[in-house]
Amino acid sequence: MMKNKIARTFEEYYRIYRESVQDPEGFWSEIANSFEWRKPWDKVLEWDFMKPEVQWFIGGKLNITENCLDRHLKQKGDQTAIIWEPNDPKQPSLHISYKELHVRVCQFANALKNNGIEKGDRVCIYMPMVPELAVAVLACARIGAVHSVVFAGFSSRSLSERINDSTCKMVVTSDGGYRGDKILRLKDIVDEALLECPSVEKCIVLERTGESIEMEDGRDIWWDDAMEGMTDFCEPEIMDSEDLLFILYTSGSTGKPKGMVHTCGGYMVYTTYTFLNTFQYKPNEVYWCTADIGWITGHSYIVYGPLCAGATTMMFEGVPSWPDLGRFWETVDKHKVNIFYTAPTAIRALQKADPALVEKHDLDSLRVLGTVGEPINEEAWHWYHDKIGKGNCPVVDTWWQTETGGFMISPIAGLTPTKPAFATLPMPGVQLAIMDQDGKEEKGNVVEGRLCIKFPWPSMARTIYGDHKRFYDTYFSGFSKKYFTGDGCRRDEEGYYRITGRVDDVIIVAGHNLGTAEIENAIDEHENVCETAVVGFPHDIKGNAIYAFVNTYHKPKDEEALKGEILDLVSRIVGPIAKPEKIMFVSGLPKTRSGKIMRRILRKVAEGNTQDLGDISTLLNPDIVEELIDENIR
Ligand code: WTA
C-alpha cells in the first residue's frame, strides 16, 4: 500500500528511505500496487547504466488516464479536478469536476482518432494555459499518442525544430493567448513553423482570443468543429508500462534540444507518490503550481501527479505581475489555496514589490510552500517563509529535472527540518553520490562535487528521442555506472544537500534552462558576426542573465543598431526568453592553444570581477583579455 510509504514523522522518513534502499523492488512494487493496472507486471526492474537501459514494472499494462480520471469517478466524480484562473481576474474562473474532465478528455481523444491519430503517433501541443491544454495532454495519453508539449514562448524556428525532431503528425494550438496585457499570436507562429514541417497533416485550433487568423484548408480544423458529435466515452488504449507517454524537449550543451522520453508506468507511480509524500497532500486541499504545462513541472505536478492522486489542481493562465504584483496573493485568497508551488525568480520579483501588495491579503489558507527550478537564495527563502508563510508554512525546496521526471531531493512538508537554500534530503528510492574531479565518489558528509545518482528510480527518462547515443554520452559517460545530473552540489555535516548550480553549458535564466550553444548559433547567423560566446552572470531577479561576447567581421558603425538586430535574431530563432541582457563587441575571444574558448575568463568579466582572472598564460591570445577589461569598464 502506498499509504505505508508516506511518512508521517521525520523518523518515519528515515525508516522508509532505508527500506527503499535495502529492497528497492519490494518498495516500489508495494507503491505501484495502489494503482489500477490492466495486467500486473512480471518483473519490477531491469537496469544497466552502462548501456544505459532501465525498465520498470516490466510486462505491466495500464493507461495513465484511467488512473488520473476513471478510478476517481465513483467517489470523487463531483470533486473539482481543475480550477482554472484566467489571465484577467475580472473574468470568471472555472471549476472542472473529475466527471466533466473525464468527458472532455474522452471527447477530445475521439476527435484525435477521428483526425487520424493512432497509438504511437507524436502530437505537438503549443497552447496557452487554458484547460484545453490539460485536456489535449490527457487525450493523447488516453489513445496512446505521444505528446510533445512546446512552451508557447518559443519561436517558430524552435517549434519547427522540435516538431521535426520527433516527426509529429499533428499540432494542437490556439488562435492566440493572453499574457498579462499582451496577446500572443500563437497561430501565426505555428503557421510559420509548419512551412518547414512536412510530417504535420492536421492542426487543431482552439479559439481563445478571437484574433483573425489564417486557417489552411484541409489542414486546419477548429477545436469546436473537431469536438462536434464526439461521444463522451473513449476506450483507453492499453499501454505497456514502458510504452512512450511523452517527449519533452530540454536545452542541452550543444545547440540541438534534447527530446527527453518518459514512459507510462514508472512515471505514473513516481510522480503520484512524490506529490503525495512531499507536499503531504490531504483530501480536498487546493493545490496550485504556478508553472506552465510547457515545462516538466507542469507535466508532473499540475497534470499527472495531482490528478492521479485525486487532488484539486489549479491552472493559472496569467502572469504574476498583472494587473499588479499582488496577483498571486490575491489568487491564493480567492481560491483558498493550501499548497503553493512556484519558482525562485518569481519570489525574488515579488519580494521587491510594494509590501502592501502582500499585506492586504490574508493568505491564511496556506499550509505548504514550494519552490523549484534553480537554487533559491537565502534572502528570498526567508521572505517567502516569513512574509508569505507567516512563519507557519514549511518551504519545500524541490530539486529535480526534466530528465528525472519527479522530485529527487526535497524536504517532506512539515517533517524534515528545513534549512534555507538547502533542498535537504533525498526522496525515498533516490541514491545520490557526490563525485570529485577524478570521478571518485566522495564519501563522508562534508563534501562538494558533482551530483550523480547511482540507482534507477521509476520516473527517470529512458532515452533522448531518436538519439540513444547522445543520451549515454550526456548523462552516463562522465561517471561510470552513474547518472550525472549536470549540477554541482554540497553536503553538510547533517547530510543535507545544497545545489550550487549547473556545471555545464546550461544557464538557468528566470527558471528557464537555456543552452549557450543554442543562443550562440542564433547570434552567429548575423552576417556581420564571426563568432559568439555566451555566458551567464548573476542577476537580482532572474537568478542569471545572459552576457554575449560577439566578435564581428567589421567594427560595427552603430553598436546600438547591431545590438537591436542581435536581440531580434535571438528572439526569432530561440525565443524572447533567451535574449541577452548585455552584449559586448570584441575583436576576438580568449582561447586556449587548442582553440577552446576560455569561458571561465568571460564569466569573470561578465560578473565585473576582473581582478582575479586566474592563470591566463596558456591563452593563445592574452592581449584580448586587456581589451575585454577595457570594454567592460568603458
Ligand atoms: C535546476 C525543473 C536548485 C538544476 C524541474 C537542475 C534547481 C535544473 C532546483 C533542471 C532546486 C531545479 N534547487 N536548482 N530546487 N530545481 N534546479 O529540467 O540546475 O527545467 O539541473 O527541471 O534546474 O531544470 P528543468
Furnish the topology, listing elements before pairings.
Layout: H1 10-22, H2 24-32, E1 43-48, E2 53-58, E3 61-62, H3 64-68, H4 73-76, E4 80-85, E5 94-97, H5 98-114, E6 122-126, H6 131-143, E7 146-149, H7 156-165, E8 170-174, E9 177-179, E10 182-184, H8 186-194, E11 202-206, E12 220-222, H9 223-227, E13 239-240, E14 244-250, E15 258-263, H10 264-279, E16 286-289, H11 296-308, E17 312-316, H12 327-335, E18 339-342, H13 344-351, H14 356-359, E19 368-371, H15 378-388, E20 395-397, E21 432-435, E22 447-453, E23 463-464, H16 468-476, E24 483-491, E25 497-502, E26 506-509, E27 512-515, H17 516-524, E28 529-539, E29 543-552, H18 559-573, E30 582-586, H19 599-607, H20 623-633
Parallel strand pairs: 4-17, 6-7, 6-8, 7-14, 8-11, 11-12, 16-17, 16-18, 18-19, 19-20, 29-30
Antiparallel strand pairs: 1-2, 3-13, 4-5, 9-10, 14-15, 15-23, 21-22, 22-24, 24-25, 26-27, 28-29
Helix pairs in contact: 1-2, 5-6, 7-8, 10-11, 13-15, 19-20
5'-O-[(S)-ethoxy(hydroxy)phosphoryl]adenosine is lined by residues 250, 295-297, 372-375, 397-402, 423, 485-487, 499, 502, 508, 513.
Any low-confidence stretches, pLDDT <50, length ≥5? Answer: none
**Cα shape:** globular
Question: End-to-end distance, in Å?
Answer: 65 Å
Given the helix and strand composition, which structural class is it?
Answer: alpha/beta
* Helical percentage: 25-40%
Query: How many domains?
Result: 2
* Rg over alpha carbons: 24 Å
User: How much strand?
Assistant: 15-25%
What multimeric state do the chains show? Answer: single chain
Strand order of the largest sheet: 12-11-8-6-7-14-15-23
Give the C-level CATH assignment of the largest domain: Alpha Beta
List each distinct ligand once.
5'-O-[(S)-ethoxy(hydroxy)phosphoryl]adenosine
**What's the mean pLDDT score?**
95
